[in-house]
Amino acid sequence: MRKPNLAEYNTFYKVFDWKKEQSGLTGLPGGKGINIAYEAVDRHTEGQLKDSLAIRFIRKDDQREDYSYGMLKDLTAKFANILRKLGLEEGERVFSLLGRVPELYIVALGSLKYKAVFCPLFSVFGPEPILQRLSRGDARILVTNAQFYIHKIKGLLDQLPSLKYVLITDATEDFDDVALSFPKWMERVSKDFEIRPTNLEDPALLHFTSGTTGMPKGALHVHQAVLTHFTTGKYVLDFQKGDVFWCTADPGWVTGTSYGIISPLVNGVSSIIDENEFDGMRWYEILEKEKVNVWYTAPTAIRRLMRMDLVPKERYDLSHLRLVLSVGEPLHAGAVVWGENAFGVPVLDNWWQTETGGIMIANYRSMKVKPGSMGKPLPGVVAAIANIKEEDIIIQDQPDIQGHLVLKKDFPSIFRAYLHEEERYKKCFKGDWYVTGDLAKKDKDGYFWFVGRADDIIKTSGHMVGPFEVESTLMKHPAVAEAAVIGKPEASIGELVKAFVVLKEGYEANEDMELDLIGFARKTMGPAVAPKEIEFVDSLPKTKSGKILRRLLKARELGLPEGDLSTLEKNQ
Ligand code: AMP
């Protein structure tokens, strides 16, 4: 097995230098700056990677469609030429509303090449959340398919005066002056496009955050973010020459763009993209057949795999797999241990968020894993635990103190704005620090442990209770498949801890089970923290990126308005 790129964490953290890492990028010819699309695609076509596999798409019917770096260069240049022909200005917004199909990837990279700002939307969104994002993001061009156009977009056009064109991926002819045929226009334009000078601070990507609190916010990223995508690919995902990488995230969520598109391409490896949604057996088959070396997925998928009664490494040839990584929500210690046995390789949790644009805290192949911990800050990133009072921020040096997770704001991929929401943006910063909105602890060895969102924390009888801690405990009970915990106002104790529980198959939801679970939690965590109420449910409401929507459970519990549900996974 090849050695990890990051040989020893502590030494490397001390010597790390972003400037030095930047020399691993090429820069536009003639010293004209750094453009994400050039680093991801064009630069590789000057050398040996020109004909090698950049992306393999697996269609719903299992057909494979391969794109080399050379093909991607031509196709993305063509799309950039379409944008020019349609009169788009630099910095204007191109949106996509597509499943994980090749056109989405061509549009993303082609927009970056043109220096437009690319914003991907989840294809499962209905008209209302689409309207909200297209109008808040001032979309000029949207790329979608005929079905979505007819059912979700056409009726909104009157309300979207800035939207000039909709390109339809499966229309053979233009529908009218607004709805144009993507393939026809791709045929018409040249495959030569010269990228204009690109500054590090030029805007590149817009991501609406998952909206677990309040209205969705449009986090804006710049071309310099590619440096984070590059280094995290190298040191966290541990990309090695010739690797096959699979990121299961949809580009509608930031992970699917930063790590489903940019990071693997910038590092010159081959990516797998599956058009299908989660399907345990199919996923194991893909890992085997495509000889995947590095697999990046999410706790929600790992939990679902855990529920299937099988040890994949015994049934499938996973000998190529070197690393499994997870992001998006806490990866419980039990899942880390299960994963290591099930796959026979380390399962590495890492932490980041839409606003940070790339991985910030991680477990590394060469570092001892403490199951349940998010790991240590990326070299080049300073993370700390802080007490925040109004404008004051006090960094905690003592270990094991719970506080706000904050990051020094000087890393390349930090978001540069919430579009049109300057006040909301400013509120995220205190002095030199970016306040993430998460609560965490740091142990004496420098490992970070997630506690919960700052706004999910429950105060009960004077105790601060992190819902994640209670959920983790409940998950240790053999009958529990999933759990979500909220604080329910209760006069005598402030808030009462209430748990919503999904049971594993074969267990019955009844009073005995409720008493059993409460008893179990009281014994393990102490009566002050353990849930006092348990409600059995068939499923938990989640965002499309797999995060439990505690806010929604709470609103339903209290009979309050459910708020923005645009990111809710359907049928919940
Ligand atoms: P998003 O911006 O939608 O990617 O959500 C980011 C949020 O997801 C973070 O602020 C955390 O609350 C949560 N999150 C992401 N990764 C992790 C992780 N490894 N452990 C715990 N929470 C996580």
UniProtKB/TrEMBL annotation:
<dbReference type="Pfam" id="PF00501">
    <property type="entry name" value="AMP-binding"/>
</dbReference>
<keyword id="KW-0547">Nucleotide-binding</keyword>
<dbReference type="InterPro" id="IPR042099">
    <property type="entry name" value="ANL_N_sf"/>
</dbReference>
<dbReference type="InterPro" id="IPR000873">
    <property type="entry name" value="AMP-dep_synth/lig_dom"/>
</dbReference>
<keyword id="KW-0007">Acetylation</keyword>
<feature type="domain" description="AMP-dependent synthetase/ligase">
    <location>
        <begin position="51"/>
        <end position="419"/>
    </location>
</feature>
<dbReference type="InterPro" id="IPR045851">
    <property type="entry name" value="AMP-bd_C_sf"/>
</dbReference>
<dbReference type="InterPro" id="IPR020845">
    <property type="entry name" value="AMP-binding_CS"/>
</dbReference>
<keyword id="KW-0436">Ligase</keyword>
<dbReference type="InterPro" id="IPR025110">
    <property type="entry name" value="AMP-bd_C"/>
</dbReference>
<protein>
    <recommendedName>
        <fullName>acetate--CoA ligase</fullName>
        <ecNumber>6.2.1.1</ecNumber>
    </recommendedName>
</protein>
<dbReference type="GO" id="GO:0003987">
    <property type="term" value="F:acetate-CoA ligase activity"/>
</dbReference>
<keyword id="KW-0067">ATP-binding</keyword>
<dbReference type="Pfam" id="PF13193">
    <property type="entry name" value="AMP-binding_C"/>
</dbReference>
<feature type="domain" description="AMP-binding enzyme C-terminal">
    <location>
        <begin position="469"/>
        <end position="547"/>
    </location>
</feature>
